[in-house]
Sequence to fold (86 residues):
Amino acid sequence: MQGAEVEKFKVGWVGHIFYSSFSSKRNGVLILIHMNISFVLLKQTKDTESRIVHVEAIVEGMPVVLCNIYVPNMGDSLFFMRLIRS
Fold:
């Protein structure tokens, strides 16, 4: 997922987009936040393989953590071990 592809998700209701994208089409994750939601970004983290986007925020006055993880579907058993360690 690259910049032009992310732009496709900027539809009428979207207020914030957080993404992690890779140079190929195989990886990439998004978090979309509705424009009518009270949202204050505190921290955003991405991994180097574009499989994870992690957002810490205040949503409607409450602290929340949002995380979107793209898990490989080819049986990468080490993926979960690396995820737990990070």
Summary: Residues 3-85 form one domain. Strands lie at 14-21, 28-34, 39-46, 52-59, 62-69. The mean pLDDT is 81.
